[in-house]
Each structure stands twice: as structure tokens, then as C-alpha cells.
Design brief:
By secondary structure, the chain is of the alpha+beta class. It has a single domain, classed as HIT-like (HIT family, subunit A, 2-Layer Sandwich), CATH 3.30.428.10. The protein contains two helices and five strands, in the order αβββαββ. Strands 1-2-3-5-4 form a five-stranded antiparallel β-sheet, covered by helices on one side. Strand 2 and strand 3 form a beta hairpin. The radius of gyration is 13 Å and the shape is globular. It binds guanosine-5'-monophosphate (5GP) and zinc ion.
């Protein structure tokens, strides 16, 4: 996707603080962290939203979850964290490229983002 901000981050056209990258997923620090640990994990392939996924996306999404667990542990949330995928208008999804927020760290995590 030419103008998708997260596709542009994956391509290196927009700078980000990269945490991890492999063939399928890319992880980087959120530009506006809500907690000490706030990392976004995204599929490299453009998927606009969790509302758009199908069976073909299952391997990528499963891999994303396994990566998220490891990154949370390695980046300061060994005792637990929240994984949030905002979806669609009601879900207040602002960036239309599927992303999972890893939210945690030392401060308590409130009931809502
Ligand atoms: P959403 O509401 O769509 O689930 O959250 C989008 C997230 O992307 C927000 O937490 C926002 O701070 C983050 N974000 C938006 N633009 C950028 C950017 O250019 N770089 C980084 N690192 N994060 C971004
Ligand atoms: Zn995209």
C-alpha cells in the first residue's frame, strides 16, 4: 500500500524505533507510549484490519502472537501485559494497517487504553 503509514515504516520510508523484524512481522515502539512498554507488532503484508482477516491469514497472525509474547518478555513485561488490537470505527482504530499493541511495563495498566 503506497501511502499506508505502517507500510511506509516497514519499507523504512518513515523512521521508527525498530524492536524486531523477520520475514512476516515488524515491531516498533509506539510514537506516543501510554505505558513504559508500548510496542506495536504488525504484519509486513498490508492487512487493513482484524475485520478483514480470513483463514489465509491465520499463520501470520499466529506468528504475530508468538512474537508479541517474546517481545513483551524481552522488553520489560515479564509478568504480564495487555495485547490490544483496535478494530474498526467502534474499536477506535486510527491506523488502517492491522497492529497489535503490547502494553505493559512497571506502571499499572488501567481498564482502558
Ligand atoms: P490505533 O488507535 O490505530 O490502534 O493506534 C495507532 C497507534 O499508532 C497509536 O498508538 C499511535 O501513537 C501510533 N502511531 C501512529 N503513527 C505512528 C508513527 O508514525 N510511528 C509510530 N511509531 N507510531 C505511530
Ligand atoms: Zn499498510
Amino acid at each position: 500500500m503506497e501511502n499506508c503509514i505502517f507500510c511506509r515504516i516497514v519499507r523504512g520510508e518513515i523512521p521508527s524505533r525498530k524492536v524486531y523484524e523477520d520475514d512476516e512481522v515488524f515491531a516498533f515502539h509506539d510514537i506516543n507510549p501510554l505505558r513504559p512498554v508500548h510496542i506495536l507488532v504488525i504484519p509486513k503484508r498490508h492487512i487493513s484490519s482484524l475485520a478483514e482477516v480470513g483463514a489465509d491469514d491465520a499463520p501470520t497472525l499466529g506468528h504475530l502472537l508468538v512474537v508479541a509474547r517474546r517481545l513483551a518478555a524481552e522488553n520489560g513485561s515479564p509478568d504480564g501485559f495487555r495485547l490490544v488490537i483496535n478494530t474498526g470505527r467502534i474499536g477506535q482504530q486510527e491506523v488502517q494497517h492491522l497492529h497489535a499493541h503490547i502494553i505493559g511495563g512497571s506502571a499499572p495498566v488501567g481498564p482502558m487504553l
